[in-house]
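To whoever picks this up:

The parser on our side crashed when reading a file containing two proteins. I've narrowed it down to the boundary between the first structure block and the second sequence. Both blocks are reproduced below exactly, byte for byte. First block:
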Amino acid sequence: MKKILNFRPCLFCALPLCFGLSLWGSINFSDFSPALVLFFCITFFLMLVPINQKRLLSLLVILPVFTGLGVGLMELAFINYGKGAPSGEYVVTATVQQVSERQGYSIAVLKGLSFDGEAQAGKCRVMLPADTVVAGDLIVFQGPLEKKDPFEHSAYAKNDFASDIRYTGTSREVITTAKSSDLLLRLNGHLYEVLYEHMEPDEASLCYALLSGNLGAMEEGLHETVRKGGIAHIFAVSGMHIGVLFSAAMLILKKLGRYAWVPSLVLSFLYCGFCGMTISSLRSLVMCGVFGASRSMGRKSDDLESLSFAAIVLLLFAPAQWYSAGFQLTFAACLGLSLFAGSFSRLLQPLHLPKFLVETLASTLGAQIVTAPILMASFGYLSVMGTLLNLILVPLSSLFFFCSLIMSGLALMLPFAADFLLAFPEALFSLLILLLSFSEWTLVLSGFAIGAGAILWLFYCGYLSTRLQMRRLFRAVAAVLGCALFAVVLLFENIVFSGCRLIVYEEEESAALLIQTREENVLVIDGDVSLSECEEFLDRNFGGELSAVVGLSADALNTAAFLNATEIHLPYYAETGFHETQVLFGKRFSYGELSFYCSAESLVLVTEGVAVEIALDKEAGNADFFIGAGSGGLKFLLEDGIIKEL
């Protein structure tokens, strides 16, 4: 029997390791997906074909060992994440690792934590007054901190777990005591100050993002354009940045012969440290190391094997990164390049396009075909104009990066000439801003959930890759069936055929609940939930017009007014000042099959013959819904799901 997949030891080890990590998460996060298990089972079968002694023995050893290793590493990561001081008020001493600017305040990620003089592991995300700190500052503040729970019903709980952010808090007053002993972190902060001192704010934010990977300093409108234009990957320190730096160093040090890759890799490692050791930069660093080592030994490196090796190395040291959107996207993009770029290049050859255009288009399509479902699942949208914008900017990104790196480095060493040295990169980024403002690049597809469809999409797209050696007819039939099944899954994920579907958003003091039936779509909001949070939540789950927005507090009224809803309902009367938006008041109200009653403590929903007490606060033991929780006590605990008549 013809082999379907060439034997690659690292790939054969990486897949069961990822399966073990996913298995732990599906059990502990209560998000078990049959599609995910099916994906790995069929993949393992393809690895086994043709069945021979070598492959069979390899899988019998590799499969249980690396699956068990993945489960064990994730459990250990969770145990370590749970350690630390409980929630409370502390005097905090910490080092600023990264800062993102918002309207009127800053969000800083802190490391090297000390609470009341006692060292603590992990990191802290804290809201601070605007423009008070930069990366590398050693700060002191006093305030309440909340210990994070990776299992809490939060929109960003898994990402915080992956980033080892164990605490969140707010402080209105900060004391900056000194600079950190971390020279690379201090250099990062100094670069930020120099760029903003000698360049216009928007140009400085783009330059800083390109060099450091931190998009948080951008003005919100520009940040939104970059994200929804599908070009945020250009500013995430990854293959392009590390590859350009590594290749330039190899060229300069070519007199060292086959050992030139060693100092080049060290230089790249220092740059990764400057960028905060982001997962995308480390992935690129490992792959460059594999490439350099293979070349020095006279061997040809295999991109799929190098990618698998990088995944193993990073997941062994940081298994929680499996749940990081950054980890998923950087590896998915590289996987797409490996699997599909060659196929797309061959398909485009008959068009007789310029070679650089064919390579750019093939690379862009190859990366996007794999990252698309991850972007949809993580951020709730897909960029419509991303491919076109990438065709323009990807070929220029290396020039932008190399020019910015050289000129910024010289500006740091020669501060008296910074205005002159930074004039050229400032002009380049001015042209980029002009391009971004020239057209509406933020057109996106949103408002639908992808769910298990992401796994099906990735799996059946694999049949399009020539890396799987199968007959064309079988490949075509499998791809068509996969697309049909993907469409069916999307249909059931986004249309309610029976019952009442409940979807929750919670993040710190913000909460929202989407209630869907065949006819009605009602959004309930409570707490300090912002318009952007509501819009992001709806982008992931619903794209039509809401029947109503129910605000459980007066603070929710201003947010509700800007949502696409027929009417707004408040349980208690409040002055609104609205002329065009219809606002209704009352403790009892109904929308189709949905009946609501608002008490002093909570909102009760009656549908399908079931009474549901909606508790969107933390004091409810992290429960979202209490079914039948009246005088008879708690009968059922329901999180996201569908209520049906019993």
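<<boundary where parser fails>>
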Amino acid sequence: MSDAPLLDVQDLRVRFGDQDVVHGLQLQLRAGEKLALVGESGSGKTVSALSLLRLVPEASVTGRAHFAGRDLLALSERGLRAVRGDEVACIFQEPMTALNPLRSIGDQIAEVLILKKGLTGAEAGQRVLELLQSTGLSEPERRARAYPHQLSGGQRQRAMIAMALASEPRLLIADEPTTALDASLRGQILALLSDLQRQRGMAVLLITHDLHLVRRFADRVAVMERGQLVEQGDVASVFERPQHPYTRKLLDSRPRRTLDDAAPPPASAPAPLLQAQGLTVAYPTPLPGLRGWFRRGRFEAVRGVDWALPPGRTLGVVGESGSGKSTLALAALGLLPHEGRLRVMGRAWAGGIADRPLRQQVQVVFQDPFSSLSPRLTVEQIVGEGLRVHAPGLDDAARRVRVLRALREVGLLPEDTPDGAAVAWLQRYPHEFSGGQRQRLAIARALIVEPRLLVLDEPTSALDVTVQRQVIELLLRLQRDHGLSYLLITHDVDVIWAMAHEVMVMQAGQVVEHGPTPQVLRTPAHPCTRALIEACAPL
């Protein structure tokens, strides 16, 4: 690597209106180097990186950002357009929102090649296939014709990487590129980026809150807190001997197990709240040729699964994307037809209005609260919505009392909040809250109808490490206080370790290992379990 930095950022300041969000950032990145910029949500890491290319609307940006001898912040808009997507490319967190849903993957990559490299349509088409193949996508011809919704999360992210590399950039900005992926896919994407980075000699600026990812990928790490750079250095030194309290806080935020596994079993085992025997969920599939005219094929997403979940306990379901764990959760919620025996509180899902009493007892918390909370409803309407269905006799005043109680229980409203301030707070909308606050809103919405069972579908994967730990501690406290049972769906072994009494490991629709969490995670018997544990383990 050359001694002269490829990117030299000096005194970068970003302001929205009269509020400073980045305070004098200084950063250097050499050619061929991998630098991780880490911090909690709101620390300013994404704003800092995108401001270098002036991609943050309505932001006032000052300072210097010399890239290959040119100050990016002093370039004209025309000059900056020549840099964006060519010498500097970006990979974004959620490819489903970054990719155009109306155009095929191949067309979107070809557009970059035609605009930035001046290739003809035929040349671009051939290069698209080479790029998709280089990112490990099987059947590149078919993937090039596919639209974003027809690909899995990992495939979409590989397509985004192919698009970013199309112009052969000198600097790649990767903004949370693996947050929405399971552990094994995260490892695959990391390995892919490392290989491509070495082959092309490009520099990578990785923006992330995932400290495991930093350990595995980066050469150096820079830590941001509230818009300020508080610590930086090589990864080994910072992780082994952190100097700043905030860095130590981030490193100490990995979920910990506090469950009492040594507690004696009850004298008489209670009836399980949720029980399945031979649970199978199948989908019809088209058959090729003439056969498809007369009958359909069958794809079994879940095959012959058995479990029993007692009151006050957590059953964790872990596996790679496509293993069937989310399908299993939807079946448990009565949202998918199934075969076999499935009983909730001793009853089977009947369908329609007959299930209303049972649905009060079974609620769900989803992965991404920003998409699961209606942006058009206020906090009071969102949290109180269930009461309108399950407690229609309550008047507005009584319903508001229940909403405020639920919000206080999940830690969103301090107990001593004046009534006037609390009422004003109820009129806010989801976009006015942080990710952790929105997830607390989602939990309050589920709890307000006083259920006995919660289905938690990746409840912490969209959160940074410190907020993730707070939400886990909240869920554990609520379980202790109310005797709740949790069916926990996740790809994060750390979350399973922190929350689950028992764990089921799924692969290709089947349970390959099932038992007490300490036993399964400490002495895994199946190769799939060992692979998941290794993918989540820090180096």
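After patching the parser it read the second block fine. Residues 373-450 form one domain. The chain is about 40% helix and 25% strand.
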